[in-house]
Design brief:
elongated, 20% helix, five-stranded antiparallel sheet, 5 strands, single chain, alpha+beta
């Protein structure tokens, strides 16, 4: 259903998955699923890919995709907002690639 759920996030680990938003149903009909915490991938203590919905429960809101470094939620390395599922998939794939590149630069 969602391409990002099938991505190879290695060496990261999916640490949270409560993403149950259905692209075939209007956002207004699934407000219970529009939450700030939807999906998260952790790369040890250093990087986190986070997907949430903001504002929570608001069908006029957006998915927010972020890369967080060292738990600094106030200053994401990357952030994109969209309410389009295709753009969401592309953004998460871009984040996974960016984090892998950052980790490889440290070697």
């Amino acid at each position: 259903m969602f391409k990002f759920k099938k991505l190879d996030f290695s060496p990261g680990q999916v640490t949270y998955d409560d993403f149950d938003i259905n692209p075939d149903i209007a956002f207004e009909e699934q407000q219970y699923s529009l939450d700030e915490d939807l999906f998260q991938v952790s790369y040890g203590e250093e990087y986190t890919i986070d997907i949430g919905w903001s504002p929570s429960s608001d069908p006029e809101g957006n998915f927010v995709v972020r890369i967080i470094k060292n738990y600094d939620w106030d200053t994401p390395l990357y952030q994109k907002q969209t309410n389009n599922f295709e753009v969401l998939d592309e953004s998460v794939a871009e984040c996974a690639k960016m984090v892998k590149n950052l980790l490889n630069e440290q070697l």
